[in-house]
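re: ur question from yesterday

yeah so i grabbed the chain u mentioned. its 124 aa long if i counted rite. heres the sequnce exactly as i have it in my notes:
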Amino acid sequence: MAKCDEGYLCEVCGEDVAELPDSDLYLRYVIGLLDPEVLHTSPERHVRCNPALAQYIVDGAFKPVAFEGDFDKRGLDPAYVREREALVTRGWRRLRELRGSETAIIEYPLPEVVEKLRDRSPFR
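ran it thru and got these structure tokens back, copy pasting raw so excuse formatting
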């Protein structure tokens, strides 16, 4: 089987990241943490295999993830945590919306991320 037919394997657990909402790679892209220029060269993980980011998803359809350590959201500034939860949760919900759609990958990110990408484009 060709590499492109295998899907993306999680660099943490080694299992297939079969669904878009499970993709840490695409979540980071959608919320603006990953430049589209490195999307194809960046490692993939399940969202749950990156608890530092997954802890910020607050949605009844997502089983909460606890993160122990210096970046545990329970020990961070509450205003920062609310802002981060809003962003990451919106990104995760966006991935759920995109699942199975014909949307072009350049249109995956949240609107404010798309705008930032357009602002820095040399072809603008």
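noticed a couple things. Confidence is low (pLDDT under 50) at residues 1-5. also The helical segments are 24-30, 51-54, 78-98, 111-119.
anyway ttyl
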